[in-house]
Amino acid sequence: MGREGWLKDPDGYWVKRFHRDQASWTGCPRVFVDEGRGMPNGEPALLKRRQCLRHEQAEQLWKALRRQGWRPTDPVWGSGCGP
Fold first, then answer.
1. Which residues contact 26 (CB under 8 A, 6 or more apart)?
2. What is the DSSP string of 30-77?
3. Antiparallel, parallel or unpaired: β 71-72 and 30-37
4. Rounded to two decimals, what is the model's pTM?
5. What three-state secondary structure class fits 15?
6. How many whole angstroms separate alpha carbon 12 and alpha carbon 9?
7. Whether pLDDT at 33 is above 80
8. Rounded distance between C-alpha atoms, residue 8 and residue 28, angstroms
């Protein structure tokens, strides 16, 4: 997993965004995992939950979700998505 990664659930409804907690990266690296979904018509995304995990835990979660059928996807919210 690089600086940021996105996974979409097998039904294509929920999305998880994995991104570094820059404030902790040099000491005890941590990763934020945001869960939400994109909204139609340009409305703001619906963000349901945020976790802050140790880097190793985030990697384990990523791998577990991939085994459960979650697939990489393009950014759904934030500065990296849309026109």
1. none
2. EEEEEEEE--GGGPPPEEEEEEEEEHHHHHHHHHHHHHTT-EE----S
3. unpaired
4. 0.86
5. strand
6. 5
7. yes
8. 27
